[in-house]
């Protein structure tokens, strides 16, 4: 995974709750959040990391401006370049700082960046649980080079005399930059119309996709951004992108699920998906899955999410006029061609075709062998699926990170969503194909990302509730 990802629910609690409190920030920044400070290994926070990681090898950094109630966190990884990018706030703007993943030294620091004026309500409301909207960072590789992007939603040119224009602004930096005052290669404004929390920026398909107008990972309105040229291509009415939409009796709320070098991956509202002019889901469905559901002539198949050149899809089975009665089939496909990579039956329900939200992010091991979303996991080398959905006595395990050796970490999901108890964290072995699991000890820290090969990124809140980012190397 290259960029920051949506956070929330049991998995975020699993990676944050256990690590609360204790230890120095380790970045030498103290309360002033100095973006030019470097890490000091002797000040590492005390973490109870899994046995695969060394608790005393790595580095820490602290962000003291990130509210507790946000839907994304301002950190990202450019794995090929080997940097972890964090965003800092100061009186003169926001600063992106890129740490070398191996030793925590600062590779480069941006000049202060001024995002557009926040829209009304962007601060959120902690008393009602309404999440805030903050500037963020992500990373993308395009045409063989990695870039770090700072972005924010707000009003351009708003003042006492002007209403301004609502935009998402992106500042593009080369991930392999150096120096203490790096300027963006370009800034790109994408016109949008959205409430706070209704903007989503993703680079999961290999191109930057800006979506707006719905909460969740897949808003209905979107545009692709070419970071090398600054060109913005609006996708307009997504219902018009695939001709198969017109062939279905019910097709609405279609969405672009990812922007790729070959065009948009489109999910039809009502079922079915494809890439305009290249392929459609009826030609890439797993064996034994019907092309249509039989309900108002709807196409079968829903894109769940995209990651590292693949996408995860769910298919309804044993469909009658009253709905699907069998366990869904889940499958992984090549993003460019749609070619089927692996499939299995698993009792985790397929997402609503018209919904913009998903329960879990799609994650992958750094080498791309393993891919998962919550309780649905795949070993793409063995072309085998592993279902971790609860069945009878067994509880559901939702995965949050996977290492190259097939060791995965996640949270055990309880029936009661209102439980105040700390989540139970588990370690899962994906290599045998059975998903054998064991509970980690009370207070165990699990990685939020394994994107940097040979290391894991851990998140926690320190005694002052500042967000602490800790890299710990594998043994």
Structure description:
It is a single chain. Helices cover 3% and strands 40% of the residues. The chain is mostly beta strands. Strands 2-3-4-5-9 form a 5-stranded mixed sheet, with no helix packed on it. Strands 6-7-8-10 form a 4-stranded antiparallel sheet, with no helix packed on it. The two termini are 21 Å apart. Residues 1-12 and 17-42 have low confidence and may be disordered.
- Runs in which pLDDT lies below 50 for 5 or more consecutive residues are 1-12, 17-42
Strand order of the largest sheet: 2-3-4-5-9
**Approximate helicity band:** under 10%
What fraction strand? 35-45%
* Overall residue-averaged pLDDT value: 89
Name some characteristics of this structure.
single chain; 475 residues; mainly beta; five-stranded mixed β-sheet; four-stranded antiparallel β-sheet; 3% helix; disordered N terminus
SSE diagram, text form:
Blueprint: H1 9-16, E1 53-63, E2 75-78, E3 83-90, E4 93-100, E5 106-110, E6 136-142, E7 145-156, E8 165-174, E9 179-182, E10 186-191, E11 199-202, E12 208-212, E13 221-225, E14 232-234, H2 244-247, E15 255-260, E16 263-267, E17 273-275, E18 279-280, E19 302-307, E20 310-315, E21 319-320, E22 323-324, E23 329-334, E24 340-345, E25 362-364, E26 370-373, E27 376-379, E28 384-387, E29 397-402, E30 407-412, E31 424-429, E32 436-439, E33 455-461, E34 467-474
Brief overview:
The chain is mainly β and 475 residues long. The protein has helices at 9-16, 244-247, and strands spanning 53-63, 75-78, 83-90, 93-100, 106-110, 136-142, 145-156, 165-174, 179-182, 186-191, 199-202, 208-212, 221-225, 232-234, 255-260, 263-267, 273-275, 279-280, 302-307, 310-315, 319-320, 323-324, 329-334, 340-345, 362-364, 370-373, 376-379, 384-387, 397-402, 407-412, 424-429, 436-439, 455-461, 467-474. Mean pLDDT is 89; it is low at 1-12 and 17-42.
